[in-house]
Amino acid sequence: MTKFLLCVIVFCISIIITFARINAGSEKMGFSSKNPPETAWQLLSHKKIYFGHQSVGNNIIDGIKDIMKENSKIKLNIVKTNDPKMFTTPIFAHSPIGKNMNPISKIDAFAKFMEQGIGNKADFAFFKFCYVDITRNTDINQIFTYYKNTMKHLKEKYPKTTFIHITVPLTIVQTGFKVWIKKIIGRPIGGYADNIKRNQFNEMLRNEYKNKEPIFDLALTESTFPDKTRCFFTKEGKTYYSLVPAYTHDGGHLNELGRKIVAEQLLILLANLSQ
């Protein structure tokens, strides 16, 4: 009987911890896409933009469309294309780029699209990596050096285009009573190792470009609860950030809430850069 009661207590604690964790990120966020002046949105509507991405990028595009339905002042011509001929009029172009789990292929594809004509026509150009591109076994020093050199070349070749850097997206980490048990027995905790590498890569990007060139801090947005607190974990005394569980349906891709929160921050950045 005592053993049974102990099991019940442990189970209840696990449920309470897990529920509290999920519920903490489920509050509605007051969207601030109305904050930039109306003139900024008007200027943004006249820009030519290119965004290279994979599946999480599709989530962000859907989030932008969600916000546009609620804010008539935000007018963007969203088109799935990487054809430079489409950049004769204002456009928010987006397309798949490279291959997942191969970050070099995404850097090369972005550079190729710029050199095929978009670089001479776009006002803003950017691409994002996927969370599967940076994992525990990734040589982030090699990837970042290649990224930095490529972006430097593009910036010099296309000085009229504003290139925006994007931090690598995060995933959720394992939570609940099992984490406590794994820490005691020294077992690896789900999501820790991969997210640590993503955090490290993102710090390299921030250190290189912060206050120098535009950064869309996707990882910051993904790891921030609606109440502005952060979703984090600690490993060997260091703090690392992870995706808010309430922003995803599968641990990595963005759900309706998550995509809207991320899209809002991207739109605000673009509007501010348009002034």
Query: What characterizes the major β-sheet?
Result: 6 strands, parallel
Q: Helical element count? A: 9
What helical percentage do the residues reach? 40-55%
| SSE pattern | HHEHEEHEHEHHEHEEH
Description of the molecule:
- It contains nine helices and eight strands.
- Helix 3 (55-70) packs across helix 9 and helix 4 (103-115) runs parallel beside helix 5.
- Residues 4-34 have low confidence and may be disordered.
- It is α/β, with parallel strands linked by helices and 275 residues long.
- A six-stranded parallel beta sheet has the order 2-3-1-4-5-6, sandwiched between helices.
- Strand 7 and strand 8 form a beta hairpin.
- It has a single domain (32-274), classed as SGNH hydrolase (Rossmann fold).
- The longest helix has 23 residues, at 2-24.
Annotation keywords:
single chain; 275 residues; two-stranded antiparallel sheet; Rossmann fold
